[in-house]
Amino acid sequence: MTEHYLGRIGNLIRDARKHRGLTQQQLADLLNTSQSAVNRIEKGHQNLSLEMLARIGSALDSEIVSLSTGPLHLRVTGPTTLSGSIAVKTSKNAGVALLCASLLNRGRTTLRKVARIEEVNRLLEVLESLGVQTRWINEDNDLEIIPPAHLDLANIDETAARRTRSIIMFLGPLLHREEVFDLPYAGGCNLGERTVEPHLSALRPFGLDVKANEGSYHATVNRAMEPARPIVLTERGDTVTENALMAAALHPGTTIIRNASSNYMVQDLCFYLQKLGVTVEGVGTTTLTVTGLTEIDVDVDYAPSEDPIEAMSLLAAAIVTNSEITITRVPIEFMEIELATLEEMGFNYTRSDEYVAENGHTRLVDITTKKSQLRAPLDKIHPLPFPGLNIDNLPFFAVIAAVAEGQTLLHDWVYENRAIYLTELTKLGGNVKLLDPHRVLVNGPTHFSGAEIVCPPALRPAVVILLAMLASKGTSVLRGTYVIHRGYEDLAERLNELGANIVPFRDI
Fold first, then answer.
1. Interior CA angle at 84 toward 353 and 394, to 5°?
2. Is residue 65 in some structural domain?
3. Domain count, the chain
4. Are residues 329 and 367 in the same domain?
5. How far apart are CA 85 and CA 330, in angstroms?
6. Same domain, 76 and 29
């Protein structure tokens, strides 16, 4: 069996080499090896590591390493000490909201430095299946979006749509473009049962009626209906608020949205709508007043702000490995409670003066972490809507608490089962006790040691496990890391630039 696949690999390499017009010696020179080694490889007489396959593929400009389309895994060797500087990338959640909001505009939307992640890729696949033209303009990840005159909703890419929860945010823009349409059920992270009813409640005043059919939402729009009074959101959710905002943007009257989220991605959406010519008042508060337009057809250029969740991920990486690094472009107004909590735990750091993000609004700072002796906080750690501790940042406190002296209680009240995934830290030597589906008790400090773990199906707990592996003695393997690529761009590679030893691989 081994000889069979080694022979097939050797034939692939030989054919690719000849296609490039190289001799065995020339390929050997590129690989810094001998001609006899290349000869053995091509005859199938040489065992090959995935690292060597990747090097050969790079030398021959051929995807020989893509012999398997199976899941991507990460091999982590620790313990790690990080050093250097790293910039926070733009917000994943703002990026996906802005992609959905681009459907409001009949003109060209250019988004700057968009997070090039799997969640964005899935949304682009959906948009392209509808007839939207999308194009990455340059290596800075600037993205151009041009909607067609008429969307081809009958051709929607259902496979891509089901792999992203963000598809639910198509409801707000589409209700103005179509009177009848279907959307596949939303997918994404496995975080328990999360009803879409708050979305439907927010959009009914605009005439939207949605019925659940087999595998999809069937939507009909009554154009005669319009909001007669302020819309009070039953849930102060980010995507619910964004859906209501997008519906209000193409309603020519004035819409008041109460109990609105004022979180970072909502603010980015508000600033984008303002660039489209929509009047949005109350940005950053829980009451938004929107005066919409009957039609939007403008060429607009917008730069979403930096991601506070990625900033927290990088802070946690530094804290868990007790490293001194500089994290630039941190959106401080969305990190203040997290930093105050860390200060209470004994975290030492310095930060620069504030400066403004490219969107012209969001306040940024540079943070330099210092070696710290952490202790458990006196009170439990729990999230709240902005300006409280961010719901998506809570899981990072599990791995931080694991290296702190004492006992920390985390209360993840929003999701039914996300806290359960944090108990995977016990496989690396952590002392994490599940009290109920929402609460975990973490005792520290922890001396992490390597283990092989299947990646949790929820984004933030998955990254928490990866960060703990950085601090673990020996070699760890994190299997099936697609969920991380949904929300982070090149996270492993960027951590490697700070001194981590993370090797991606696939099973052959």
1. 70
2. no
3. 3
4. yes
5. 12
6. no
Mean pLDDT for all residues in the chain: 90
Q: What is the CA radius of gyration of the chain?
A: 25
In a shared domain, residues 221 and 244: yes
**What is the domain range of residue 17?**
1-60
* CATH code at position 26: 1.10.260.40
| One domain, residues 77 and 107 | no
Provide the pLDDT confidence category of residue 63 given band limits of 50, 70 and 90. low
- pLDDT value at 388 more than 80: yes
C-beta pairs of 335-339 under 8 Å, 24+ apart in sequence:
335/308, 335/311, 336/387, 337/387, 337/388, 337/389, 337/390, 338/312, 338/389, 338/390, 338/393
User: Could you tell me if 250 and 292 are in contact, meaning their C-beta atoms sit under 8 angstroms apart?
Assistant: yes
Q: What is the pTM of this model?
A: 0.82
Is residue 189's pLDDT more than 70? no
Same domain for 168 and 290, yes or no, is yes
Per-residue pLDDT reduced to its tens digit, 437-459: 999 999 999 999 999 999 888 88
Phi and psi torsions of 151, nearest 5°: -80, 140
Mean pLDDT of 224-236: 90
| Range 129-134 average pLDDT | 94
